[in-house]
Amino acid sequence: MKTIIIRPTSAADWPALKATRLAALLDAPTAFGTSHASAARLSDADWQQRAISTPQRTFFLALEREQPIGLAAQVVAGNGDCHLIAMWVHPECRGLDVAQGLVDAVKQCAVGNGHARLVLDVAQENARAAAFYQKQGFVFLPEWEPLESHPHIQVQKMEWLAAA
Hints:
This protein is of the alpha+beta class.
């Protein structure tokens, strides 16, 4: 049985965060609001800053034997909405509860920071992800918008509400 650790990143994790995020953007270029090219242009100082966990932004790495195999983040938008973003699991590790562990970590972080609601965006074409999010308690909202990195793709908002 594989031992997988999921934890928030710290400044020292920036190389792993950068490598994992870039791998995700190469693996699924139309699943994220940013492109590989724009992420690759970020400086090491930018990645170091992103790796520091704050109530406004926390990245989580899933690690197997210290090797990153997954990523997710919670980010608070300017309007106060707490978002699940950057969700990705290495193709060889899909179906092993890594994704569920990452979503659980983001939910706990959001609730711990006072957010009773978590939202995400998913493309209709990404049926596997949409079905997974539904199993995690997310429901579709009647809200659509173009994906920032690929405006021809429409994403639908989903929300999860913490138990009262």
